[in-house]
Amino acid sequence: MLDALFNQTPIPALEQFANFAQTRHSILASNVANFDVPGYRTRDLSVEQFQSQLKEAITARDNWSLGNPSPAQTGYGDPFGEVKQSLTSIVHHDETNVGLEQQIAEITKNQLQHNLAMVIMANQFRLLQAAISERV
């Protein structure tokens, strides 16, 4: 029952975005830590590929919630399952040597996006709590 309630909100998409940002932060921090290592190639997650997969998962979920059979009824599964699994397969090794300043800028941008997702998620939980407790 709670899964059905949460799946109607942006919370699953925000969860996937937070997971992506956390994983990307680890990779970017590793790039900074190994910046002076000879032969080290910077790595990163493909933001565009992740956003594309997340958009497809959200569209699939929205199509199911418009009166179509649920994922459990169709046996298709969790629409965000593919997004979860993509985090391990979209790491790219960059052939160019990126500067330290660019890595720090990417870490800062990634941190701000993660914080934004957390703020939106906290607001969603407050709305759900208000709806459950029938307060205005």
Keywords:
single chain; 136 residues; mainly alpha; elongated
Would you give an account of this structure?
The protein is mainly α and 136 residues long. The protein has six helices and two strands, in the order ααβαααβα. The chain has a two-stranded antiparallel sheet. It is elongated.
- Specify the helix fraction band: 55-70%
Order of helices and strands: HHEHHHEH
Task: Tell me, rounded to a whole number, the average pLDDT.
Answer: 80
Shape: elongated
Which structural class do the helices and strands define? mainly alpha
Uncertain regions spanning at least 5 consecutive residues: none
Most strands sheet: 2 strands, antiparallel
In the sheet with the most strands, the strands line up as: 1-2
- Strand content of the residues, in percent? under 5%
Total count of strands:
2
- Count the DSSP helices: 6
SSE topology:
Layout: H1 2-7, H2 11-33, E1 43-45, H3 47-64, H4 71-74, H5 81-86, E2 91-93, H6 100-133
Antiparallel strand pairs: 1-2
Summarize the structure.
The protein has 136 residues and is mainly alpha-helical. The chain contains 6 helices and 2 strands; from the N terminus they run H-H-E-H-H-H-E-H. Strands 1-2 form a two-stranded antiparallel ribbon.
